[in-house]
Amino acid sequence: MANESVTGLAGESANLTPVMRQYFAAKEQHPDCLMFCRIGDFYELFYDDAILVSRELQLTLTARDREKKQPMCGVPYHAAEMYLQKLLRMGYKIALCEQMEDPKQTKTIVRREVTRVLTPGTALDPTMGAEQSNYLASICLVGSGMVQGGTSVWGLALLDLSTGDFRATEFSGASAWALLVDELGRVRPAELLYGQALPGLSAGKKNLLTTFPDESVKDGEYGHPGVGEVEDAEVSSGVDGIRTKTALDEWVFTAEYAVPLVRNHFKVHSLDGMGLGGHEAAAIAAGALLHYMRQTKQGGLEHVDGLRFYERSSSLELDAVSVKNLELVEPLFSGESVQTTLFYTMDACCTPMGKRLLRASLLRPASDLKVIEARLEAVSEASGDLRRREGLRRSMDGVLDLERLLGRVALDSAGPREVMALAKTLGCLPGMVAAVQVFEAPRWRDLGTTVDPLEDLHEMIVQTIAEEPPASLADGGAIREGVDGELDELRELSRSGRQALATIEERERTRTGIGSLKVRFNTVFGYYLEVTKANAKAVPADYERKQTLVNAERFTTPELKEYEAKILTAQERSGEIEKRIFAELRRQLLVAAGRIRETARKVAEIDLLACFAHLAALRGWVRPQVEKSGLLEFVQARHPVVERRLEESGGGRFVPNSVHLDADAGPAVLLITGPNMGGKSTYLRMAALLTVMAQMGCFVPAERMRLGLVDRIYTRIGASDNVARGRSTFMVEMTETAAILNTATNRSLVLLDEMGRGTATYDGLSLAWATVEYLHDRIGARTLFATHYHELTLLAERLSRLTNLRVTVKETAGGIVFLHTVEAGPASKSYGIEVAKLAGLPAGVIARAREVLKLHERAETQQVREASPMPEMQMTMFTPLSQRIVDRLAEADVDGLTPREALNLLAELQRELKG
Asked: Is 142 in the same domain as 253?
């Protein structure tokens, strides 16, 4: 505030206007919200709120007084949506203080109340992409703390208010917090609810939600923080990335309060049927979400008709790091084109529901072989029949967002046009169902026979709402003619009003003989008959005088009074009738909310399968063979994203490659060497993306593919740091690697790229060497390990299930040419200097680099080859010798030395080593 505190001014209530007293009363109830107070045709903000909003939205800051002690700014009521959404995206909360009375109908100050609180997690953003979800998250801790061996359980609930998607899960054990943060990082909710006690689990500790670790802590196992370690913990990227965090009273997160809320909302006696039996933490988190919906006045939530408990292990697990590195749904770097994502490459969906299911499937590919096979069979049939496939896709042309339209109806934010849009979408369903029923695959048959076409709801809407309804119910004309007799009469009265008044005027002129008599209207006296003073004596006795003017008299008649009452109340009465009919239609739609949501879910799957079939036919993708084994094999495979970008840019064709891994019998680790820019990272990502696609039930870009089900994909690709949180590039790399080594199984797929490059050469080489051994000997996961450490290729001589691969190049007189082909065997060198030359480094730098490289190669190669494979001797091969000693040994004439000279030379070298 400019000069005085809002609290201080609120205390001087005697000096405040009635409107400002209303404002401060509302602000006191919602102190953490920006108060948008409706005054006439504007939403006004005052004091601190006005200063903040004027700055954030670049609005003109004015004042209510000449001294400018009461800052204010405002936005037009009818254009407020744009401003509200900007503030919500910035993380602010907004309270809407509305006029609860019609100013025309009251002689006192209009009553105002907060009707709804908008928050980033509860707002319906019309600009949000069809494929995006806007989740509100709630977390709670149940148990005896987070120390090792404790009985604590973290509960997580997620709600997308725009679609009614409501789900919950739990995390327990030593890595519970790490798993929770990882899930939050993957889902990326817009807002997080938590209990006020969470930030202060231990006296004097820092805020849990901004300092607790997501991967490692001092003196603790990976993902296993202890309460006493919070002070030294790193910032949690999964939680810290959430812009808006809302603390609720601790009693909200009690079983006694929260669990009954869930039961009452769904009108059930037990939560067992929703999978929440024995999952108290998840149920409490869900109850806290419902409490917050009530607190922020979100309405009856009729479209939130189900709650689903889910397990991370029920799908192929992808942590937030892997989702980011693989660019599944968002570019790796902020500001990059979405064309780098797999979602963009695969998005050929026809409906918003299908797009969201595609995104969800990318983040949680299936792990159930029966589900995968059913999808692949359906895709196979549709991809082979152009006529039926395109008929199905065309049948979805008019299908809009069923879930979000229903959400707007439930939250009472849908106008007549949204309801008519819902009807037009419902009108497409019978044709879509018929198009599905021409297929014979079991999944198609199941969908075709169980989709509810909702024809009764379509008929109900089109018989109620006008064909071209207005944007707002307040504009009138939303209800179709013939629905209500009184409404039709009132409309006819409004339409024929001018003609009726003309008829009365003409009749009264004839009856009275006063040719200048006129029927007029004003807002004070309503309708009246006006007669000049000269004709006053000719006025009939049944006229009642209303007003006398200097040159005229004004009269009324019983007929005109009756007509005036009808005319003046017709519009108001019409509005009341339309509101009543619209409210009843809304009520009936919400009774059928469960049917609509179930149909929306099945439409989404139909669209997704049709999308997969379309892609398979258009791009020549093939059906993968998915099985229960440790195999990962694809032949002449292509990276789907890179291939499409090359096609769109005219940059040539993608060079296909093959992979063969077998966690059960064959090679489990592929060690890939070759130059930068040769395509090692692309090769790794291709293996992961094809695995994701296959377990989604989609065809893949390859000649053929066999895949044993993967339980989790791990990636460590590229270098990044987090200096703001005290985490270097190497620390980030080691933390992510620790996650892999501590949790991977022999059914996992591990991708490691250039591990150890963030530290000293021999430190990095040592860690890379030990990591490969651990993955090979202890875990047995299918692993692709790309590296520039050529020393690691020697591991093939002692690790039976490790195979060397190299990315090939062609050396020419002018430099090197990248062939992008992966073949058996180790690379002869890294070609780093050649790549630097291509990048344009000065010739002098390149020449000197070649000289230094030769010196180091001579020193290092011999030592690596002579190193003992025994663990106690393993590290000696990485100890650098003095270059001078190496040079003396290389120059010594061993054949010409006498025994004494040889002993003297060894003694000198030994003294130098010790010295």
From this structure: yes
Pairwise CA distance, residues 915 & 903, whole Å = 18
431 to each of 391, 397, 460, how far by Cα in Å?
A: 10, 11, 18
Residue 801 and residue 725 in one domain: yes
* Sheet of strand 308-309, all strands in order from the earlier edge strand to the far edge: 244-248, 191-195, 135-142, 153-160, 165-172, 308-309
CATH code of the domain containing 695: 3.40.50.300
Overall pTM surpassing 0.90 (yes/no): no
Gap between the Cα atoms of 372 and 366, Å rounded: 7
Q: 554 lies in which domain range?
A: 485-583
With beta carbons less than 8 A apart as the criterion, state whether 53 and 73 touch.
yes
CATH code of the domain in which 521 resides: 1.10.1420.10
296 and 151 together in one domain: yes
- Residues 477 and 466: beta-carbon distance below 8 Å: yes
CB 383 within 8 A of CB 613: yes
Dist. CA 633–CA 566, nearest whole Å: 81
DSSP 622: B
Q: For 687, list phi and psi in degrees, rounded to 5.
A: -60, -40
**Domain check: are 607 and 631 in the same one?**
no
**CB under 8 Å to 107, separation ≥6 — which residues?**
none
Q: How confident is the model at residue 92 (pLDDT cuts 50, 70, 90)?
A: very high
Closest to 696 measured CA to CA, from 352, 390, 368, 206: 368
Buried/exposed code over 421-445 (b: 16+ C-beta within 10 A; e: otherwise): bbbebbbbbebbbebbeebebebbe
186 in the same domain as 77: no
Nearest in space to 138 (alpha carbons), one of 355, 287, 341, 311: 287
Per-residue pLDDT band for 676 (boundaries 50, 70, 90) equals confident
Buried residues in 91-119 as b, exposed as e (16+ CB within 10 A): ebbbbbbbbeeeeeeeeeebebebebbbb
Alpha-carbon distance of 782 to 784, in angstroms, equals 7
Tokens of 826: 């180790």
Same domain, 850 and 815: no
Domains in the chain: how many in total? 7
Same domain, 228 and 245: yes
Q: How many CB atoms lie within 10 A of CB 20?
A: 18
The answer to whether position 82 is within a domain reads yes
The answer to whether residue 685 is domain-embedded is yes
Distance CA 516, CA 904 (A): 140
What is the Cα–Cα distance from 420 to 405, expressed in whole angstroms? 10
pLDDT in tens, 141-189: 988 654 444 568 999 999 999 999 999 999 988 888 888 988 998 888 9
695 phi-psi bin (left φ>0, alpha ψ -120 to 50, beta other):
alpha
Place of tokens 């963030």: 758
pLDDT digits (tens, 9 = 90+) for 776-833: 999 999 999 998 888 899 999 989 999 999 988 777 766 677 778 898 988 876 677 7
Please calculate the CA angle 791-797-801 and round it to the nearest 5 degrees.
105
Q: Residues 455, 458, 459, 461: what is their CA dihedral angle, to the nearest 10 degrees?
A: 160
- Partnered with residue 816 across adjacent β-strands are 811
3-state secondary structure 738-769: HHHHHHCCCCCEEEEECCCCCCCHHHHHHHHH
